[in-house]
C-alpha cells in the first residue's frame, strides 16, 4: 500500500496530471504511472543518437503500451490540463492537443507493430475545433481523447481522435492523422502485415478507401508579399525518433504568424494569433528536420481567402512542411 500511495502522489504535481488510459484499479493506476514516465525518459535519451539507445527506448515504449486494456476506441484520459498548457489569456495552447493526440494514437501501435524496427511517422494531420471548444473553460476540467483507426492500408494508417468532456461527453475537437509505417533504421516505408489489415478492416474500420488528403498549393506570392521567420531546432523540439516532433511545428507557425500579424504583413490579423479562434489546422509533413538545423517559416494570406494563413517550413532550398491555419478573424474580447 505504501508503494501504491507513492504512485498516487505523482499525480498531485501541478504541471501535468496525466492519468493515461483508464482508472480505478491498481493495475490501471500502475500502467498510468509508467505512461507518465515515457516522456521524461525520452527527454533524457534524445541526446543519444546511437541506434542501440533508440531500440532500448522503443522496447520500453512498447512494453508500456501493451499493458493498456484492449478496449475500443482507446481513450487517453487527462485529469486536467496543466498550468503550462494555458497561454497568457487563459486559452489552451493549440500545440498541446497535437502532443496529446499523438499519445492517444500510440495506443494502437503495439497491435500493429510486427518488429522492433517498425515505427509510424506522421504524414499529415488535420484538427477541427468545434464552437463548443472556444466556449468552454478547461481549467480543472477532466477530458479524454478517444482514438480509433479509420483506415488501414499496406503502408499507411489513418487514426481519428476526438477530444471529449470526460463527464458530459461533449465533443470539443476532432482530428485525423495519417501515419506511414517506417523502418526506423533504414528510414524507408515498410508493409503492414495482411493479417493485421484484415483484422482491422473486418472488425474496426468503417472506411474501405483512404480519406482524401488536402492538396496544398505551393508558395505563390512574390517575395514582397510573404513574411519570413527563422528559428533553430533545439533539444526540446526533437523526439525519440531523432527528428522534430509534430508538436513544435504548430508552435513554430503560431510564432511566425503572430510575428507577421504584429508587423503588419497580414490583412486580417493585427494581434498575436492566440487572440483569434482557431477553426482548422491542416499540415502535410514532407521531410524530416534534425537537431541544430536552421528553419525558415514562410507565411502569407491570400486576398481571396481572408482568415486563412498559409505556411511553408523550409530548411535551405527544401520545403519540409506545408500547412494552413483557418481562424475566425474577429479577435477575442479579451484584448
UniProtKB/TrEMBL annotation:
<dbReference type="InterPro" id="IPR049427">
    <property type="entry name" value="Acyl-ACP_TE_C"/>
</dbReference>
<feature type="domain" description="Acyl-ACP thioesterase-like C-terminal">
    <location>
        <begin position="231"/>
        <end position="302"/>
    </location>
</feature>
<dbReference type="Pfam" id="PF20791">
    <property type="entry name" value="Acyl-ACP_TE_C"/>
</dbReference>
<protein>
    <recommendedName>
        <fullName>Acyl-ACP thioesterase-like C-terminal domain-containing protein</fullName>
    </recommendedName>
</protein>
<dbReference type="InterPro" id="IPR029069">
    <property type="entry name" value="HotDog_dom_sf"/>
</dbReference>
